[in-house]
Amino acid sequence: MINMSVDLAGVTLKNPVMTASGTFGSGAEYNEFVDISKLGAVVTKGVANVPWPGNPTPRIAEVSSGMLNAIGLQNPGIDLFCKRDIPYLTERNATIMVNVCGHTTEEYVEVVERLANEPVDLLEINISCPNVKEGGIAFGQNPKAVEAITAAVKAKAKQPVIMKLSPNVTDITETAKAAEAGGADGLSLINTLTGMKIDINKRTFALANKTGGLSGPAIKPVALRMVYQTVNAVRIPVIGMGGIANAQDALEFLMAGAKAVSIGTANFANPYVTMEVINGIEDYLKKNNISDINDIIGCVK
Prior knowledge:
Elements: E1 6-8, E2 11-13, E3 17-19, E4 42-43, E5 60-63, E6 66-69, H1 78-91, E7 96-100, H2 105-115, E8 122-126, H3 143-156, E9 161-164, H4 172-181, E10 186-189, E11 193-196, E12 198-199, E13 204-205, E14 211-215, H5 220-231, E15 238-241, H6 247-255, E16 260-263, H7 266-269, H8 273-287
Parallel strand pairs: 3-16, 4-7, 7-8, 8-9, 9-10, 10-15, 15-16
Antiparallel strand pairs: 1-2, 5-6, 6-14, 11-14, 12-13
Helix pairs in contact: 2-3, 3-4, 6-8
């Protein structure tokens, strides 16, 4: 019998495979493809204190080995989320990680307080959002801001707090250490890299926002490097993500030291991918006579 379960910040996951925020909704869209009770966790789309309309269209563009998105964290707001999405997930025995977004520290804290008494297992705090009080720079690009918002969220959170780091920084370990200093229980990385595409026929930007977040296989080598660096810079667990499309990709992140992995863009091309990755990891362990997945986590030093 192979043990596929991992401990993530005190929460036991059935296996280390989760969805990435913004690519899986809250699971309902994938109902006919995935038994969400078998996932390590469902990471919801980002939720804010009030509904956000998102950015103007067009806001998605395909690029080589991935996609650009400038959705702008469109979401229905915390009230509808608590009424509709949390019951859907709990009825299906999903382990729930709620991704939280905001424009100010107060907005993040408001959502976290609303979730305190909800049947939610983990919180993932998206600090790639623009900080409107600091001229629009993302919270996650300034180590002092990372530490401050982590501490503010942690002071009100009833669930473990996982800070989702932006890769759009000079040194990922600086923001990772800042989140750890602020009291984070774990880290998620990487979020998307900033990119651009131009439509040469229309002679304009492919996205109305001009730039967007690059995700998919194109970013995997960068993500893997940042996860490895971060695992070796902090003592808290790391969730690895960025271009994972199959079991081999997931195993690379686990061997680099990630406690769990999140699969995002690949869901759009193959809605069965999460289940295939879980089965693929299990097959690898069987083939190599490894009885516990934890024996391969961080095995590459």
